[in-house]
Amino acid sequence: xxxxxxxxxxxxxxxxxxxxxxxxxxxxxxxxxxxxxxxxxxxxxxxxxxxxxxxxxxxxxxxxxxxxxxxxxxxxxxxxxxxxxxxxxxxxxxxxxxxxxxxxxxxxxxxxxxxxxxxxxxxxxxxxxxxxxxxxxxxxxxxxxxxxxxxxxxxxxxxxxxxxxxxxxxxxxxxxxxxxxxxxxxxxxxxxxxxxxxxxxxxxxxxxxxxxxxxxxxxxxxxxxxxxxxxxxxxxxxxxxxxxxxxxxxxxxxxxxxxxxxxxxxxxxxxxxxxxxxxxxxxxxxxxxxxxxxxxxxxxxxxxxxxxxxxxxxxxxxxxxxxxxxxxxxxxxxxxxxxxxxxxxxxxxxxxxxxxxxxxxxxxxxxxxxxxxxxxxxxxxxxxxxxxxxxxxxxxxxxxxxxxxxxxxxxxxxxxxxxxxxxxxxxxxxxxxxxxxxxxxxxxxxxxxx
Length: 450
Hints:
The chain has helices spanning 7-20, 29-47, 51-58, 97-100, 123-134, 151-161, 178-186, 191-202, 205-218, 240-251, 254-260, 327-343, 431-436, and strands at 65-68, 88-94, 109-111, 117-118, 146-148, 175-177, 237-238, 264-267, 272-275, 286-292, 299-307, 315-324, 345-351, 356-361, 367-372, 376-381, 387-392, 403-411, 414-423. The chain is an alpha+beta fold. The two termini are 26 Å apart.
C-alpha cells in the first residue's frame, strides 16, 4: 500500500498540470476549459479556505539571474617607426619604458649599423665639452672668463674662407666671454672660432687634440677619433653609439645645453648676429644639439628632444642621423622619426556610456540591461594588448540605475574604469504566475486541517 502524497507534493503536481494545460489534447476549446475548471476545483480542495492563494501571493520570489560579459577591446594600431633607408640612425629614449620598453643594446631604435663615419662639425661639440672640462661654466647664465683673440686667431678667418668653410667675423683685438665664444662656434658652426677656442683652452690645436682623445678615452668613447677642433678633416670619426653618449653628456651640462638650444645670439662687439644651423629647434620638442656636413651625402645631425606624447613628463630622446643626402633631407628624416613616435601613442575608447555588457532576468521573464555608466578611454602605445577585468556583485535591490560593480581596462602602466549599472525596471510577476509556480517561491505552502 503506497504512501499518501503530502499536500506540498499535491501542489507541485497541480502546478505541473496547470503548466501542461494549454497543450492538453481534447475535443476542443470546451474540453480545455473543463480541464482548467477541474484543476481549479482540485486546488480549492487542496488549499483549504484560501490559504494557498494568500501564500502564493506573498511568498518570497527567487532572485534574478545576473549575466555579464564585458567585450574584449581591440588594441590600437601598431606603430610604424620611420627610420632612413640609407646612412645610419640611432636613437635612445628614456621616460617611456613602461609603454615602449627600454633601450636594447644602448638604443631604442637603430638603422644602418654602428660603423664609424665622419663626424663633420659635430666635432665642434666635442671641442666645447673638452674646453669646458678645463674651464667649466657655473650654469647657463655664467659668462665665464674672457677669451681675447690674437692676430693669429683673426688670421684664421681668411684661412678658412679660402677653404670654403663656415666662418664668423672676428674683429682685430676683439674679445668675448667664454659663453659667447662657445655660442659663436656652435650656432653657425664657425670653424675659425673652433680653432681659436682650442688654442685658448689648451695652448695649441695640437695640445687640444691630445686632450680631446684623452677625454674620450676617459669617458669610454673608444670608437671616436679627433684630429682637429673643427671636424673639417674626414678622419674625425665616430660611431652612432658613441655620439649618443656624447650627446647625453652635452645635455647634462646646463651651460652647453642652454647654448645649443638658442636659435641665435647678437654679439655686436664680435661677430654680430649669428644663427643656429639646426632648423629643427622648437619642432617636435627639439632642443639641440649640433649639425655637420662635408658635402652631399654626409649631412649629420646629433639631436635632443623633449617629446610630449601625452603621458605626463615628455620623453627624453637623444639621437643621431649620419650620412643624410642633404641638410633638408636630414631634417626630414629626424622629424619623421619623432612624428612617428608621437603617432604611436593614441587614446583607445575602451567603453562607451550605455554599452550593454549583460542582463538581469527573472524566473517569470522580466528583463533589465546591465550597462556601462560612462565612456572610458585609455592612453596606449602602439598595439599594446588591452586587458579587461570586471568586479560585479549581486545587488541588494535590483533597481534601475543601481551600481553593481566596475569594469577596469589596463594596458601598459595605465588603467581606465567605468561603473556598471542596471537600466530598466524588473516588473513583478502576475498572481497567476505565482499561483502556477509554487516550486519557485519561498517556503512551501502548508495547511492544517481544522
